Amino acid sequence: MESARRAKLTLNDRPVLRTSEADWSIKSNDQAIYTLDEGLAGFSDGVEEFDLTLKQAVPLEGYQIDWLGLCRTHTTVRPGLIYAGKTYKIEGRVMEVGGGSKVNDPSMVTVTIKAKIIAVVNTPGL
What we know:
Radius of gyration: 18 Å
CATH class: Mainly Beta
Structural class: mainly beta
């Protein structure tokens, strides 16, 4: 059996280039409901959250995407995550941007986005 291809990221339907790492998680934020009579009586639906963190090499000519500007101006972004045959279209904000440099490695920027899923589309072959 073949494994899924590497995840791909897009922003405004354009590829986010030079991404070396992408981590994401989805939280349901459901809450357990307990009563004295039943103990665990059920669940209360929570508000779903999508967290995305990416690392991207910084090209010599400068950032492909002005992550710092998006964070500082509180701009709503609409990234896409293509993974395992599906495209997750999300909408949220750049919550944190950091960077770093070290010997024998490219300068990197780390971006954290908090979002909600607005659509899931089948993307066969990707």
